[in-house]
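Hi there. Long-time user, first ticket. I'm pasting a complex I've been working with (about 233 residues overall). I'd like to know whether the download I got is complete or cut off, because the file seemed smaller than I expected. Thanks.
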Amino acid sequence: AQTVTQSQPEMSVQEAETVTLSCTYDTSENNYYLFWYKQPPSRQMILVIRQEAYKQQNATENRFSVNFQKAAKSFSLKISDSQLGDTAMYFCAFMKHVGGHYGQNFVFGPGTRLSVLP
Amino acid sequence: DAGVIQSPRHEVTEMGQEVTLRCKPISGHNSLFWYRQTMMRGLELLIYFNNNVPIDDSGMPEDRFSAKMPNASFSTLKIQPSEPRDSAVYFCASSSLYRGNTEAFFGQGTRLTVV
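Hi, the file is complete. Here it is re-exported in full:
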């Protein structure tokens, strides 16, 4: 079974600074997808960024970028120019791609609570 | 599209009662997931449907839990009878995973309280 690990339960960063959240995963699969989700106090799960394992280029979305190291099974999230609205729980997620049954085992890590300080 | 829609947003029920949670996935998405979120256990995958067919229900905690997806636009998660330890936030998510295009979005969740 696939597992996702986030080793930082809590982190804080000063507004306008850069922060990196860590994520590692365990799988024997070659084709899969990785995601970062943000959950603010409103509890809504918001998709931040996604990465297909077959793509070598790291995904970027405005201030958010990832460092995808397939061999090391590492998928970290970098938030640049942190804003107060970035304060939230951040979850790393893994989705397996197996034949015609896409998306089996869409599993999440335990989350990292990020606080952006003014 | 309005996104993934869950109802109700909040549910308070007495122990032993039947509870039904509802989900409308994003039109065109072919996969649907039900999750339970608690402080102790985080986000747990309960069941997954692909093209309306249940693929993996190994996360369903007990026989008291059941899920159905009668068509591509509707799914239910039922707990009968409910117990206080079922209190949690239940999320529904839908996804489209065609080659070269992946996305997975969540509903706003249902906060269930069983007293």
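A couple of notes from our side: Chain A has no helices and 13 strands. Chain A has a mean pLDDT of 91.
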